[in-house]
Design brief:
By secondary structure, the protein is of the alpha+beta class. Helix content is 26%, strand content 36%. It has a six-stranded antiparallel β-sheet with strand order 1-2-5-6-7-4. The longest helix has 17 residues. It is globular, with a radius of gyration of 16 Å.
Length: 151
């Protein structure tokens, strides 16, 4: 079961249960699943704060946010005994890109992993980078500022 906290809580946290299907032969979460968890948390943040997600942007707005870079640092193993709290931070808001940082904690206390990804605004009709709108930039910068002490 996936759930998230209210957008008024800072930082935004996406809670995710871990299931048997998420694991590998070592009985811990398969490495590739951590990217799914990161992207689920980011899209949940987007829905809560911006009112859209990658699918709606691509289909309805003819723009997107392809991922240009990802990195992950693992701190602890995660298994179906755990629930992950994925805290969403915005490290950098550029003119056409956003760097998201996810701090994930197993059972609210054990730092499981840190992930970063860069999403670049892209105009599918023009075929090139697209600047972040002033409205979205303001939302992102306000959120970034609100998270300031929690980063």
């Amino acid at each position: 079961m996936m759930q998230q906290q209210s957008e008024t809580e800072i930082p935004f946290t996406y809670r995710r249960a871990i299931f048997w299907a998420d694991t590998d032969a070592a009985r811990i979460v398969y490495t590739g699943r951590f990217l799914d968890y990161m992207f689920e948390a980011i899209e949940s943040w987007m829905r809560a704060y911006i009112g859209t997600d990658w699918f709606l942007q691509t289909v309805d707005e003819k723009r997107g946010g392809p991922i240009a870079h990802v990195d992950l640092d693992f701190h602890a193993q995660v298994s179906p005994r755990d629930t992950l709290d994925l805290r969403v931070f915005l490290e950098r808001v550029g003119s056409t890109s956003v760097t998201f940082r996810i701090e994930a904690y197993a059972n609210a206390t054990t730092h499981a992993f840190t992930g970063r990804c860069v999403s670049v605004g892209y105009d599918y009709e023009a075929g090139g980078k697209m600047p972040i709108s002033s409205e979205r930039r303001q939302i992102m910068e306000d959120y970034q500022k609100a998270c300031g002490e929690n980063q």
